């Protein structure tokens, strides 16, 4: 594609911001707009010199772009989308443009699953990056749904070479593609090999039930050629169902001794995990990961398994995982003020919340764990997950909930009621309260915090800048 002016509506989405950078890297002029810009993607776009126009407006499409990429959060009624349709400006989706312009001539490796795919893709990319120091043909291109701290970015595009696989590592999102394409994004990526981490009911706004979610993942598996592979978690009946009819080889990973990739002797010490990994019953490597949590050991094992099967040397896998630096907004320490540690995590589902809190319990043994939750994702805003949410939050010592984000957009009969969650927690003798927004939470919680507390802030959005407001309030109270 010759150099063009390409405008992205909804540019601050993790995948959209990454695509913006990739297009700029190819020499295109890139512009974009969004309703609200917040870190880390707003910071990445600023570093790239790509301006974010706020709010959505027709004037943002002047001068007229050659092509518009419509984000999947954009629906009819958006003023820019309406202008694009009226003026017949050519438009496409992120996933379709990625397939058409970036994937031809490359080995497509896709990490999919309802949990863990951002971290796993970041691990896989770092493994390939370390391996490329001695084997240049393994230098990866990648697109991740978050900023990988080893790279300081969420994307990289390498030039295609005549030799080598030209690997492109993709986080495969099961969410829908665009207002005109309601299928999952990952169906555009046609993987040569894939990872399937977990399959659970999620995205209740677009999937009616678990069966529909499983159908989406079965379709992804069905795209993998016979010569390919799928590396699949071994302790999920849903995952088993999704890979049962694969035409390619299936390699299971996890704690089951019978699995192709068996995790043995898993231990956690502070923020470090160690385990022995066996391949088909034979010792493969002893892995060390500077991250807590059983779920992260699973993520690392999946990345190691896929990389090894694609020919990446074992020593590169061991070195990469030992030096992995996580992803922005995944158990990220944002501040330590007056002895209080403040953690930011992109929690979007009760299972993710449970695993996050379990990991924090391991990392910060003996310390009071305070959890602040904003029900912001389309999953957490719905009451279908209320019981699971209560069970997950029960791992904390003190829970504070914000009001449901944009609650008016959820039908009353489907809407989560945070007060009910708090009441169920209090019935379990776990102190819990609800406040309307970030400012009210900061005002109420700050006087209750004491040295040694660990505060986990869980949200997949900006959450009223609470990440800055809370440490500032703690500092003032101890000044």
What attributes does this structure have?
alpha/beta; single chain; 31% helix; ten-stranded mixed sheet; 479 residues; UDP-N-acetylmuramoyl-L-alanine:D-glutamate ligase; globular; 23 strands; Protein-Tyrosine Phosphatase, Chain A; Rossmann fold; 14 helices
Short characterization:
It contains 14 helices and 23 strands. The chain starts with a strand and ends with a helix. It has 479 residues and is α/β, with parallel strands linked by helices.
Q: What is the second-level CATH architecture of the largest domain? A: 3-Layer(aba) Sandwich
Write out the CATH superfamily name of the largest domain.
Mur-like, catalytic domain
Q: Can you tell me the CATH class of the largest domain?
A: Alpha Beta
Instruction: Assign a percent range to the helix content.
Output: 25-40%
Please state how the strands of the largest beta sheet are arranged side by side.
8-7-9-6-12-13-14-15-16-17
- Supply the number of structural domains: 3
Class by helix and strand content? alpha/beta
Question: Which word captures the global form?
Answer: globular
Task: Output the CATH topology of the largest domain.
Answer: UDP-N-acetylmuramoyl-L-alanine:D-glutamate ligase
How far apart are the first and last residues' alpha carbons, in Å?
Answer: 57 Å
